[in-house]
C-alpha cells in the first residue's frame, strides 16, 4: 500500500488559503477607503500617481534581476518538491525495539516479520483468499495497512470483526500497546479460498 502526502497538501492549502484571505481583506479595505485610516496615511488625490519615481530605473538594476531570479528558483524548487511528495511511497517501518519495563534489555523485531505473522493469521479465516499487510509507525503507535482479497460469498462485516478480535488483538498483545491504527482495503475475487473444501449447495427450485 502506498503512503501519500495528504498532510502536506492540507498544510499548503491552509497556508495558501490564509494568504489569499489576507490579500482579499486588504483589497476590500483599500477599496472602501479604510486602509489609509487604519495605517494613518492620507488618501492620495484622484489625479495623483499611486507610485512616484521611475519604476523602470528600479526594475532595470542588476540586483533586481538577481532577486527575481532567486525568487523564481526557490518557487520552482518548492513546486518540484511538492510534486515529488505526491508520488506514493512504501514508507515501511524500521525494526521495532520491544522491551519490558522491568527488563534491562530489549528485542529488535523487523516490521515485515510482524506483518507476515498478521497475514498468516488472517489467511486462516474463512473466505480469505490472500492478505498483504504493511506495518509502519512505532511500537507505541503502530500503523497497519492491510490489502485483503476475499471470495464473493464472504460476509465482510463478520470477517472484519473476526480480524479485530483475533489477528489484530494478537498483534496488539505482541507490541504491548492498545493504540493500533488499522486501515483496510478489500478486493473481491471469484477464486476460491486456498486449501478450502468444496461446499454442496441445496435449495428449492421455483418455477
TrEMBL record:
<keyword id="KW-0812">Transmembrane</keyword>
<feature type="transmembrane region" description="Helical">
    <location>
        <begin position="65"/>
        <end position="85"/>
    </location>
</feature>
<keyword id="KW-0472">Membrane</keyword>
<feature type="transmembrane region" description="Helical">
    <location>
        <begin position="12"/>
        <end position="38"/>
    </location>
</feature>
<keyword id="KW-1133">Transmembrane helix</keyword>
<protein>
    <recommendedName>
        <fullName>Alkaline shock response membrane anchor protein AmaP</fullName>
    </recommendedName>
</protein>
Amino acid at each position: 500500500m502506498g503512503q501519500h502526502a495528504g498532510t502536506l497538501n492540507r498544510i499548503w492549502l491552509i497556508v495558501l488559503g490564509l494568504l489569499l484571505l489576507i490579500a482579499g481583506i486588504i483589497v476590500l479595505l483599500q477599496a472602501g477607503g479604510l486602509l489609509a485610516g487604519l495605517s494613518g496615511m492620507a488618501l492620495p488625490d484622484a489625479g495623483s500617481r499611486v507610485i512616484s519615481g521611475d519604476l523602470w530605473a528600479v526594475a532595470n538594476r542588476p540586483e533586481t534581476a538577481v532577486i527575481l531570479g532567486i525568487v523564481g528558483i526557490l518557487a520552482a524548487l518548492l513546486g518540484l518538491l511538492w510534486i515529488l511528495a505526491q508520488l506514493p511511497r512504501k514508507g515501511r517501518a524500521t525494526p521495532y525495539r520491544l522491551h519490558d519495563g522491568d527488563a534491562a534489555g530489549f528485542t529488535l523485531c523487523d516490521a515485515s516479520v510482524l506483518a507476515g505473522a498478521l497475514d498468516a493469521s488472517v489467511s486462516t479465516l474463512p473466505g480469505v483468499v490472500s492478505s498483504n499487510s504493511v506495518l509502519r509507525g512505532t511500537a507505541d503507535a503502530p500503523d497497519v495497512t492491510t490489502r485483503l482479497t476475499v471470495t464473493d460469498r464472504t460476509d465482510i462485516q463478520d470477517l472484519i470483526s473476526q480480524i479485530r478480535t483475533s489477528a489484530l488483538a494478537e498483534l496488539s498483545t505482541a507490541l504491548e500497546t492498545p493504540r493500533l491504527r488499522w486501515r483496510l482495503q478489500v478486493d473481491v475475487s471469484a477464486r476460491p479460498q486456498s486449501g478450502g473444501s468444496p461446499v454442496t449447495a441445496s435449495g428449492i427450485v421455483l418455477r
